[in-house]
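This section describes the prediction task in plain terms. A model, or a person checking by hand, is given the sequence of a single protein chain and must write out its three-dimensional structure as a string of tokens. No templates, partner chains or ligands are provided. The sample shown here is typical of the held-out split.
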Amino acid sequence: MHCWTAVQLAAFLAWASEHSEHHALWTVLAATGMRGGEALALRWRDVSLEDGTISIRRSAGVVRDRGAAPVHVEGDTKSGKPRVVDLDADTVAVLRNHRRERGAMALQLARDDALVFADEEGRPLYPEGISGRFKAEIGKTSAELPPIRLHDLRHTHATLLLSAREPVHVVSRRLDHASPNVTMAVYAHVLPGSQREAANLFASLIAEAKPS
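The expected answer:
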């Protein structure tokens, strides 16, 4: 697991807003913590720009049979349950602009049943190809960014929130973990000082309670 700092993520997204056709995809992945396959299965009917929410119901993947070309498939999310994640105003603006640009290319690309992230003809994007594109774009930025995987945008989302003391149960719901215990197990390293802080807090409580 490798994560970017807030400064590094902001630098990449700023670069991508000017140079990458996938800027909206990178932004949504970073701002929601959703899995790459979930983002690639989103359709515009799943996005409420008015309410600032995304309903995550499916996940895209690839099936390979020996001797045959890869086949794009959609199935349930990893947990098998749909979820709704809230969006910040900036991400809503990015998606609003993205839909406007898609509609300018062809009206059918902005219809409710169209994929949010697709090629110029509305065909699905393949997860492996998108992961490779993300890796390549990191190397094109002027900032010296450590290389991370596309999936590490999810880890970055969780790490930044937990480091800022966002409640674990809130982060767990955004990530679609089975329980907050899973989130804590995966990201226990995020708050290395929490044990010391707890020890000091306890000692201070006892000290204050001692009779004078």
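For orientation: The longest strand covers residues 59-63.
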